[in-house]
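Summary of Year 1 activities. Much of the first year was spent building the evaluation harness for sequence design. The harness presents a backbone, in tokenized form, and records the residue chosen at every position. We chose the following record to illustrate the format because it has been used consistently in internal testing since the harness was completed.
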């Protein structure tokens, strides 16, 4: 099983290729993917390689890949970087928290979920196909935004909503 995405990513002013591969397809790198790691990113100076454990559930793999893309797009990886492996929100190094937030925003945009009435952790986990522990964090944030009436305040959020408006209308 191999997922291969050929493309380029601009990070910190430079452009690099991104390749996403199933761990079993890269025997020379797989030994570096520990049994409890879902994914890892390497950068060889020209391209990023994201490997993931394709024996994991699709829900786990989707979030892990989005998390690794977060490291790439946020400029965290300039050489092979090993991050501390901690699984609880709020107890991770800053770069790990940022990559988690990137993945949440990519896979489950708050304004879209709110508009569709998908607010509970169970519903978010099921609809967006993300791990329940991550959906709990997203649900808390959406509820906080609802209480503070903080939706559609930024231009980027308005753009995301506009991009999804056809989809939202078809679902309701």
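For this record, the design step produced the sequence shown next.
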């Amino acid at each position: 099983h191999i997922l291969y995405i050929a493309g380029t990513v601009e990070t910190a002013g430079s452009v690099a290729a991104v390749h996403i591969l199933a761990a079993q397809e890269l025997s020379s790198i797989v030994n570096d993917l520990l049994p409890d790691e879902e994914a890892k990113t390497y950068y060889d100076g020209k391209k990023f390689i994201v490997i993931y454990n394709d024996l994991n559930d699709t829900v786990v793999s989707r979030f892990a890949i989005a998390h690794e893309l977060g490291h790439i797009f946020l400029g965290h990886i300039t050489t092979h970087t090993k991050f501390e492996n901690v699984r609880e929100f709020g107890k991770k190094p800053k770069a790990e928290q940022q990559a988690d937030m990137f993945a949440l925003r990519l896979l489950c945009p708050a304004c879209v979920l709110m508009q569709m009435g998908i607010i509970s952790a169970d519903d978010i986990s099921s609809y967006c196909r993300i791990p329940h522990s991550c959906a709990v964090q997203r649900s808390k944030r959406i509820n906080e935004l609802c209480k503070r009436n903080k939706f559609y305040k930024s231009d980027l959020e308005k753009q995301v909503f506009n991009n999804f408006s056809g989809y939202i209308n078809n679902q309701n």
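The chain is about 50% helix and 15% strand. Quantitative recovery figures across the full test set are reported in Table 2.
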